[in-house]
Amino acid sequence: xxxxxxxxxGFFSVAYVTVPNDNVAESLAxxxxxRKLAACVNxxxxxxxxxEWNGVVEEGNELLLMIKTKTSVVEELxxxxxxxxxxxxxxxxxxxxxxxxxxxxxxxxxSVPDKS
Length: 116
Known about the structure:
By secondary structure, this protein is α+β, with helices and mostly antiparallel strands.
């Protein structure tokens, strides 16, 4: 299935967001997909995070959202996460997608409308 279509490196992105529990994970994931800010959000349980907060080393159990999207909507995606996330400082880390399975990338492209 090769349509001859190709995408520039970085046309798509993957965003990582940590969350405290299943309810937040599912709410954010569903909201992002329903608003067409993401084609797919994987919810990965079982993280243990160790970090410094206000000068103290903290430890907590979290889940990871792995969000597949277009780079053109990352700013809006980040704003949505910040507005709906319970943490004072939500982790949103975005990396460019360099390539992948073309049928999957075509599906991702058709699932998330372009934003200017």
